Structure formats: structure tokens, C-alpha cells
From TrEMBL:
InterPro entries: DprA, DprA_WH, DrpA_SLOG, WH-like_DNA-bd_sf. Belongs to the DprA/Smf family. GO terms for biological process: DNA-mediated transformation. The lineage of its organism: Bacteria, Bacillati, Bacillota, Clostridia, Thermoanaerobacterales. Pfam families: DNA_processg_A, WHD_DprA. PANTHER family: PROTEIN SMF (PTHR43022). This is DNA protecting protein DprA. It comes from the Bacteria. Residues 101-311 form the Smf/DprA SLOG domain. Residues 325-382 form the DprA winged helix domain.
Length: 394
């Protein structure tokens, strides 16, 4: 198949040149195929290449489908599904929904996805983001049932990486994924969310606003599943290959021993991507995933610089003349207060809660950020101490 530069589907293709009409019509058949065969992936691409085009494959008889390599039962199943799909109607649905359609032969299909084992034939997107015009991408993934520490870590890491020009990719699930997207947005950087459902089925529902903000802020909400696709359980492991496939590396922040985040890490290794992990409390079951990855050789990540070093992108890390003083100046009032209290002493988190008057979750988030930035450390006994000596209390 020859890659072509497809234009967005016009409201009315009549009056266009013969080549443009062909492109519009061919796109309709790509759409129809992914509706009829949503899990086709590489097998669908092989079929279209063997037959010649999406339209030719759509109009092919069973004997032609079988000659392309499909077994008889699958050919019968596809013929049955094909009879229930109207290519023109599918094209009109996505046009009215304002959805971008990126097919395998389009010039703006993400180049990194072309080289994974089972690339999606078609991608549906909301947002103007282009991988061809962006910086390198890194995935931040983890548990849906994340702790305040995990969410704070993911958010701070995403914000720091976004500030360095990286694109943060995640799955828009609850917990770590949501925190990563929000952190990237707070830094003013674009972020990419890869869904396990159609773009008209927001999951989880409470992230509808986040989804709109990602698309409106120069980012992209992406899926291989056509409109109307529910968030079926099998969609998410399949979706994860796209998350890792879009990125130079994957960072795992809190994950159980059996989790989608670890599936993403395994897929990343298979795809030749770098795998990194943020260490966690050994008493937290959601630390077992990243801690195990680190034991197996994954890069231990404490801050954005660790990620940039692993990816060979240290030139993107901002160096400042004022160093630590400027870093401290950028801290929030609560973070500075905790640093001041820790000057010359080691304290438990409970003691810090009492001395600062902060709620427990907020204290945990503050300590998590200060750890990531290298301002404080947690001793084996559970006491926190400062690594930074403030001058004049500031």
C-alpha cells in the first residue's frame, strides 16, 4: 500500500477532482472495515495489501478473501459483518462528530506505531495535535486505585517532563493516568490520551471534562475503536500496545503485581522501548509492580532528569544559574513550610501533619513532591529529613 496524504472528509465531495473523490471514497471503506472488524489490526492490513485497496477488499468475494490468506470461517464471518455496515453512513457519522480519521496510508499516521507488531489500521482522534510536529513522547501509567503519593508523583513528573518539551501519553483511566494528564496540562504542554472505547463513550464518565480539555489544549484523545464502542474488558490490554508504541519510554508509577500498567511495560520491552519505574513503600501492594520492575533492571525514577537521562535527552533539562534557590522559590507555601520545619531534624509524617496543620492527604502530596525534587528523603524508620539547608529560613 502506498502512503498518501489524505485531506479531511469534506461535507460534500461532489465537484472534487477524480483523485480527491477516490481518496474520500477509499477512506469510507477503511472506516467500514474497522467497524466490521475492530480487532483486525495487522491481519486487516495484510488483507488490504493482498487485495489492493480497502474498497477492493470490501467488494471481494469469499474466494478472493480466502486467496488473501483468511481461513474459510473468518471469511464467512467477515462477509456477514460486512453486509451490515454502510461505508458512506460510517463516513458521515465521523464527519458529523468532528472526529479526525487517520488511516495507515495517511502521512500523519504516527511513524512509531508503524513498526510495532500489531499496529492499528485506523485511528480516531479529537484534537489538532500531530506526532510529526511534536517532541518525543513518554508514557506515565499506573494503578487506578492510586495513593495520594502516587497521584502527586505522577502529576509532578508529568508537569516537569511537559516543561522540558516532552509529550506525556497515558490512558485517561482513574488514578495515575488522570494525574499524569492533569500534570501535563498544568505545565502548558500537550498530552495524549489513548482510550479503550469509542470517542463518543467517555470512560470513566467523570473524565468528560478532562477529555475536552486535552483536545482543546493542543493535545489529542485517540482510539482505534469506532464510534459506539463500549469499554469492554479486552479493549484495555489491546489499547496498551498503542500507549507504549507511541512513546520512547514508559514510566510506571504504582501498580499491583497483575495490572494493566505492567502489561504496558511488557509491551514496551517487546517494542524496544525504555522501561522506568518510580519506587514505592514496600508495605503498599501497589508498589510491588514498579519495585519488581526495578529489580528486573528498569531505571529507577525519582525525577524528570532520571527519565531524560534514560531516554538520552538530558539536553532538554533546564539548567539555571540560581540553582537550588530558584527551585525553592518555585515551591508552594505548604512545601516551603514543610522544608522549614525539617531543618535540622527528622520527623514522621504524623508529626508534620500536627506541626503544619495540613490534612493527611495534602501532607502526603507535599512530601511526595519534595522527595521527587530531591529536597527531602524518607529514612528506613519512616522519618523524613531535609537534604537542603535553607538560608535565613528561605
Amino acid at each position: 500500500m502506498v502512503r498518501q496524504e489524505f485531506t479531511e472528509t469534506p461535507p460534500n465531495p461532489m465537484g472534487k477532482s477524480g483523485r480527491e473523490r477516490h481518496i474520500v471514497e477509499e477512506r469510507a471503506y477503511w472506516l467500514a472495515w474497522v467497524v466490521a472488524w475492530p480487532a483486525g489490526g495487522r491481519r486487516l492490513l495484510n488483507l488490504l495489501e493482498a487485495v489492493g485497496s480497502a474498497r477492493q477488499a470490501w467488494e471481494a468475494e469469499k474466494s478472493e478473501l480466502a486467496a488473501s490468506g483468511l481461513d474459510s470461517s473468518l471469511a464467512d464471518e467477515l462477509l456477514s459483518r460486512r453486509s451490515r455496515v454502510d461505508p458512506a453512513a460510517e463516513q458521515e457519522r465521523v464527519r458529523q462528530a468532528g472526529i479526525r480519521v487517520i488511516t495507515w496510508v495517511d502521512a500523519d499516521y504516527p511513524e512509531s506505531l508503524r513498526h510495532i507488531y500489531d499496529p492499528p489500521a485506523v485511528l480516531f482522534g479529537l484534537g489538532a495535535f500531530s506526532f510529526q510536529e511534536s517532541g518525543p513522547a513518554v508514557a506515565i501509567v499506573g494503578s487506578r486505585r492510586a495513593t495520594p503519593y502516587g497521584k502527586a508523583t505522577a502529576g509532578r513528573l508529568a508537569a516537569a517532563l511537559g516543561s522540558c518539551g516532552l509529550v506525556v501519553v497515558s490512558g485517561m483511566a482513574r488514578g495515575i493516568d488522570t494525574a499524569a494528564h492533569r500534570g501535563a496540562l498544568e505545565s502548558g504542554a500537550p498530552t495524549v490520551a489513548v482510550l479503550g472505547s469509542g470517542l463518543d463513550v467517555v470512560y470513566p464518565r467523570e473524565n468528560a471534562g478532562l477529555m475536552e480539555k486535552i483536545a482543546a489544549s493542543g493535545g489529542l484523545v485517540l482510539t482505534e475503536f469506532p464510534l459506539g464502542s463500549k469499554p469492554e474488558a479486552w479493549h484495555f490490554p489491546v489499547r496498551n500496545r498503542i500507549i507504549s508504541g507511541l512513546c520512547r519510554g514508559v514510566v510506571v508509577v504504582e501498580a499491583g503485581e497483575r495490572s494493566g500498567a505492567l502489561i504496558t511495560a511488557e509491551l514496551a520491552l517487546e517494542q524496544g522501548r525504555d522501561v522506568m519505574a518510580v519506587p514505592g513503600n514496600v508495605n503498599n501492594p501497589f508498589s510491588r509492580g514498579p519495585n519488581r520492575l526495578i529489580k528486573q533492571g528498569a531505571r529507577l525514577v525519582e525525577d524528570a532528569k532520571d527519565v531524560l537521562e534514560e531516554l538520552g535527552l538530558t539536553a532538554l533539562f533546564p539548567e539555571t544559574e540560581s540553582g537550588e534557590a530558584e527551585a525553592v522559590a518555585q515551591l508552594s507555601g505548604e512545601e516551603k513550610r514543610v522544608l522549614e520545619i525539617l531543618q535540622g531534624q527528622s520527623l514522621s509524617d504524623q508529626a508534620l501533619i500536627r506541626l503544619t496543620g495540613l490534612a493527611a492527604p495534602q501532607t502526603a502530596a507535599v512530601l511526595a513532591y519534595l522527595e521527587i525534587k530531591g529536597f527531602v528523603r524518607r529514612a528506613p524508620g519512616g522519618l523524613y529529613y531535609s537534604l537542603l539547608k535553607l538560608k535565613n529560613g528561605r
